[in-house]
Amino acid sequence: MDLVYFFGSSTFYKFRDDHLDHLLEVYHNKLQEELKVFGYQTPLYTKDQLWEDFEECWSFGLVTAFLHINVKKDIDVNKLVELSNSLSVLLR
Fold first, then answer.
1. C-alpha angle 3/9/14, rounded to 5°?
2. Cβ count within 10 A of residue 86
């Protein structure tokens, strides 16, 4: 969820389109290194699992990012969720 929120609120589509695969790979590799420091030898969390979780959380993370943009305005959350779902399909 944190990764989705970060990428949804801090990057543009073009940046994600160009670099997301690589950045998630770097994140996953570093995670595996750190888990080894704590004594875990086998991959506990595969790259495929990371991608599945990232995609599953994308709509929620995007909505959360939108909510933080205009906190002071009245927001119809249902419309925002619909918009987010539409955008997430387009941005994948």
1. 90
2. 11
Q: How far apart are CA 56 and CA 49, in angstroms?
A: 10
pLDDT given for residue 67 in this prediction = 67
**CB of 66 within 8 A of CB of 41?**
no
* One-letter amino acid for residue 63 of the chain: V
Dig out the tokens for 3 from the structure. Answer: 């990764």
**Which domain, by its residues, includes 75?**
2-91
Instruction: Determine the Cα–Cα distance for residues 82 and 28; give it in Å rounded to an integer.
Output: 31
Rounded Cα distance between 57 and 51, Å, is 10
Q: What's the confidence (pLDDT) of residue 78?
A: 72
DSSP state of 59: H
Q: Number of folded domains in the chain?
A: 1
- 34 vs 68, residue with greater confidence: 34
Residue 69, pLDDT above cutoff 70 = no
Taking the model in full, what pTM does it have? 0.65
